[in-house]
Design goal:
- By secondary structure, the chain is α/β, with parallel strands linked by helices.
- About 35% of the residues lie in helices and about 25% in strands.
- α1 packs across α8 and α3 (about 115-130) runs parallel beside α4 (about 150-160).
Length: about 325
């Protein structure tokens, strides 16, 4: 199984707590559930390893929190390459309220990166990408990096002879559209922002994927629709992947998108076609929402859900 490279330019240390009930006055006593390294590409690398694959996470790390991030990754056994920055790596807070079974994810913007730090990231990517057939760039951009940073990443990855899987949002997504990447994943919120209207159904997702394919922005477009599943599109057609019924109560969708990207990239690297890879992606995302906070998905649950994912080619494909 070839190794997958991931890029996280704005990682976090996730501090996950639980309370019985949030109080609007006085103190709310919390219990620490776990503390873990986080951020899109780091979560993807963790998910790939959880599925039995190999991944290396390239990420920034700054000051005391950055040192803690590195230590957490080392303790977890995640292969990673840290690039030091002057700013402090951000901390994110995830709160699970046991009475309501609700999760709250509080994420600050993170540090500001200087121009030379952005160049160091790109140089590290140049050196590492060629030995990895798939590169996953996932997550938000920190302040200081240009909105077109992922467009530059796309050119560098292509120049190294690797395939880029891109999962981002907002201006970073829009500014990357003039560069073709191998696969793009959008959730329904990101897709809605792209086309300027709500994306709630498979037909809505088809309009988004058609837009991305017609613009030459990607070879494979995957739009996820939450509890409905996902639509996978290529120049050969569209396939609806309907999510399986959940065997338990959904607890949190934090990290479900990263889990899906991990699974589909893992299977693409193993030689699956895009639809087959997305089947596992939908199953893993479903397993992820059954875990509270940002806890990793249960591999056995994902494997049990896998046969229940339903694939249907769209009419006119």
């Amino acid at each position: 199984m070839p190794s997958i490279l991931t890029l996280t330019v704005n990682p976090t240390v996730d501090i996950c707590c639980e309370v019985d009930r949030l109080a609007d006055i006085g103190k709310t006593r919390a219990r620490i559930r776990f503390v873990a390294a986080g951020g899109g590409g780091i979560n993807v690398a963790r998910g790939v390893a959880r599925l039995g694959g190999r991944a290396t996470a390239v990420h920034t790390a700054g000051r005391e929190v950055g040192q803690r991030l590195n230590r957490l990754l080392d303790e977890e056994g995640v292969d990673h390459l840290a690039l030091g920055i002057a700013g402090e790596t951000r901390e994110a807070f995830v709160l699970f309220e046991t009475e309501s079974r609700r999760s709250f994810h509080i994420v600050p913007p993170g540090p500001r990166l200087e121009n030379d730090e952005g160049r160091l990231l790109l140089d590290a990517l140049d050196q590492a990408a060629g030995s990895h057939p798939y590169v996953v760039a996932s997550g938000s951009l920190p302040r200081g990096l240009p909105d077109a940073f992922y467009a530059t990443v796309a050119r560098r990855v292509e120049g190294a002879g690797s395939r880029l899987v891109l999962d981002t949002s907002g201006r970073a997504l829009r500014e990357s559209l003039h560069e073709s990447v191998f696969l793009r994943r959008c959730n329904n919120h990101e897709a809605s922002c792209l086309v300027g209207r709500a994306v709630r159904s498979f037909d809505d997702a088809r309009a988004v994927n058609d837009y991305l394919l017609a613009a030459g922005a990607t070879e494979i477009a995957v739009t996820t629709l939450g509890e409905l599943g996902a639509l996978c599109s290529t120049s050969h057609g569209h396939s609806e992947l309907r999510a399986p019924p959940l065997p338990g109560e959904p607890l949190s969708d934090a990290g479900a998108g990263d889990a899906m990207v991990a699974a589909l990239t893992f299977r693409l690297a193993a030689g699956d076609d895009p639809v087959e890879a997305c089947v596992l992606g939908v199953a893993v995302a479903a397993a992820s929402v059954l875990t509270p906070d940002t806890e990793p998905f249960d591999r056995e649950v994902a494997e049990a859900l896998y046969p229940a994912v339903r694939v249907r080619p769209q009419a006119g494909s």
